[in-house]
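Narrative summary of target 7.
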Amino acid sequence: METQNSSVNIRELNDRIQKESEFVDLLSLEMGKVIVGQKQLVESLMIAMLSGGHILLEGLPGLAKTLAISTLSKAVKAKFNRIQFTPDLLPADVTGTLIYSQKNEEFEVHKGPVFANFVLADEINRAPAKVQSALLEAMQEKQVTLGDKTYRLPDPFLVMATQNPVEQEGTYPLPEAQVDRFMLKTLVSYPKKEEERLIVRMHNAGSFPEPESVVSPEEIVRARSIVKQVYMDEKIERYIVDLVYATRTPSEYGIAEIAPLLSFGASPRASISLSSASKAYAFIKRRGYVIPEDVRAVAPSVLRHRLGLSYEAEAENVTPDQLVERIINAVIVP
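Modeled conformation, tokenized:
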């Protein structure tokens, strides 16, 4: 009898989420007007936005990273700020500062560009550790302290940081503990031939479509609370934990040969992010429950930046993605 009731509840939840997730199609349509191809980038942005996480993008210049988040902010009718990270940047340039006003004879608060719904941290690895940690504190705590007062950041709050994988001269790579705070790391690749031809045609015509606002920030906040209600079976929970544990003790999952290639595995934050991202992915696919395919779809983006490669792996040119693929294939699907 209990099983029947729970199945009815799941059916009701599924119907409700199908209605509540209608805006996802509209949002995809508006993003598609401006962004040619880059389906994975758009999907990753939506997952991060709906699950309250942040996203790290790695890709060469000119691959529509900036355009993607500015288009999303227009479609959501949210405030967007871009911070270009440079070696001479100061924490106050990101968070804001107190400036003394002679007229009022007191310190006045000048909020920095981090006070926005969508923040693009462009080339985050070009700024020193002090600036990186100022931004990452805001990401984690969703607040900024200026003087003796603490100010909440707007809701929803999403940081998209980018880094160039090729040029490493004069850069400050993010420490593992700070990289771990990003829910997803997405690799942005070159567009396909047909897509690039379409991009060239749009630029030659000089007509760039403008996205319409199809959803409000308040609706995104509401959608986040509904995403949390997406049903996740205990078997899926165990599967998520198994995937993360396989990065720490590969021998338990029959892949002992990858153990020398890993210096450390994913943190508990990976399990939390994998669970949240899977629920958001199910919501995007307009389903009220998580299936193993949802977990497998988001696992590379959640795990690739959380694996520590050993010197042996680097010597053999093994990538985190290759190890994640081996782990996904080894862990038994429920």
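The chain has 14 helices and eleven strands.
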